[in-house]
Amino acid sequence: MRRTMSHSSVSPWRKHLEEEGYPVCLRNRQEKFGSGSRSDLSFGKALGDGGQRRQGVLSSRSSLPRPDLPSSRGPSGRGSRSGAGQPKIVRGTRPPRGRADPGAPPAGVRPRSPPFSPVSQLRGPICRVGAVVPGTRAQSRTGRNQDCPGQGDGFIKAIGPADAIQKLFSEETFEERIDCSGKCILPGLVDAHTHPVWAGERVHEFAMKLAGATYMDIHQAGGGINFTVEHTRQASEEELFGSLRGRLQSMVRAGTTLAECKSGYGLDLQTELKMLRVIERARRQLPIGISATYCGAHSVPKGKTAVEAADEIINSHLPKLMELGASGEIHVDNIDVFCEKGVFDLNSTRRILQSGKEMGLQINFHGDELHPMKAAELGAELGALAVSHLEEASDEGIAAMATARCSAILLPTTAYMLRLKQPRARKMLDEGVIVALGSDFNPNAYCFSMPVVMHLACVNMRMSMPEALAAATINAAYALGKSHTHGSLEVGKQGDLIVINAARWEHLIYQFGGHHELIEYVVAKGKVIYKNERSERK
């Protein structure tokens, strides 16, 4: 017999489940998400259209997260369960605190209301369908032209009930159709913090850390960043590009469709530019989306003080970046500094970030990781788009970030591997900070997988699964200034998505390390960029 309980008699974890929109009773659940009837994902060139690009349709009866997830939340962040009404796009007048607005304007224009989750936009038990547009215009078999949103390729054309979408595209033919029955379709994952360009393995340092050495112990002994800098300086651009390509491919197989990529293992102008050219080549040649970050202030070069290094960056590095950006040789989105005791102090950090901001770069920097540096307060003061790490952020800093709409990029893999205390994700969410997630992939934290990052965020930082998914999609896109084009499945946004072989989206987080079997397709800009052959053979 099933019993219901009032909040006064229910345990905290049950109350949390109910508030997140999950059933209070977890046993003998009768409802089944998804009908199991045919649904599909179509894209590519139309048959018989002379090779002209065509828009495509993605659909799945169980394509989007559970129908009973909250659709909109008030200032308290408490959600209400949706009913079983007709499907619709739900746009709350006040999205919940701590979630980035999928329709946020480009960087530099702050959203006026707190954000909401990509998993809470669509609800209801029946089929969702989105049309992915690989071409700027499409032509049906009748010869009718159809305008597509935006000037580029691969944008989402429509989202709605299956019958409406099927009627809209009834005269269309497609090159390929993928059956997504009983599966989930989610936004492509966004990795908001990575260091993927480097040479020189540091597996030996892992053994040192297991023996008790701290991050700064290794750094001061000439290891850590300094070890990688020496090897990266010696590597050719071709060698660096080859390793970067392999790492980005691994990220794609784990569901990432947009990744932030930093320089920072050169420290001198020549090597930093070499790394940025490698990142630019990847941006142009590889299907994964890239947000490029100049991180020449990742460490203080040997023989220099922090003040001297800051002077060189401001007077030499940044003017050269501006020159190469104007010529189109490289494209840099963000500027980063490692604000830390024994590295760049608060004043040097402020000078570098302010100079980058004046040349049009988005501020997105390391702060409050090992020691309280008041980096969170600095990020709010400078109008930073994001601050990463924040294990040692103060209450005042968290409040300032919430007020300034400065996102917090939390890196649970780093805290886990370095045995640091976890960032206070719950405090940040309760205060209204936009919490994003990143893998922090680097020689010190070797993790490609955003599903693993989400799992660690839930277990170690006490985030809920919807919060973790939001942090790895729309909020991470916001942290990179791209929430207006990436991070959620909405009309007019880029067609980045993943298809997982599970009837419930939570399996992507729940199955720790299981993403290799779960993820069947990864789509970016409306094109399949990864197809899991192993999953198909089952």
Strand order of the largest sheet: 11-12-13-14-15-16-17-18
What is the overall pLDDT average? 78
End-to-end Cα distance: 38 Å
The count of β-strands is 21
Q: How does the overall form come out from the CA principal axes?
A: globular
Largest sheet: 8 strands, parallel
Alpha carbon gyration radius = 23 Å
**Helix content estimate:** 25-40%
Q: Count the helices. How many?
A: 19
Mind explaining what this structure looks like?
The chain is of the alpha/beta class and 538 residues long. It is 33% helix and 18% strand. Strands 11-12-13-14-15-16-17-18 form an 8-stranded parallel sheet. β16 (386-389), α11 and β17 form a beta-alpha-beta unit. The longest helix has 22 residues, at 306-327.
Précis, in short:
It is built from 19 helices and 21 strands. By secondary structure, the chain is of the alpha/beta class.
For the structure shown, list the relevant keywords.
18% strand; eight-stranded parallel sheet; four-stranded antiparallel sheet; 33% helix; 19 helices; 538 residues
